[in-house]
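Write out this protein's structure.
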Amino acid sequence: MSKAKIVLYSLLHALGVATYVTLLASFMAKTEGVKTIPEEIVGPIMLTLFVISAAVTGSLVLARPIILFFDKKRQEAVLFFISTLIWLLIMVAVALSVVFF
């Protein structure tokens, strides 16, 4: 896989993570205060949501690099992983600059 394709695919994966996080945060903000959930259920629901979020974001960030790594394409795997993280950092920086400046 060429470096340009790796960078493009890592951008798409980072956009997937950003979209998932944005949708989840929007959903949580909209449902805040709508109906009171009993205290006994809040903990298990939040833990389940945490596990699902870790699985979704983990698969978007780590799945392709792991596949590349086990296909003996270690440099491509590292480049893909680092590119994805850099794209995510850029997205966070842009979001913060829009909010605070």
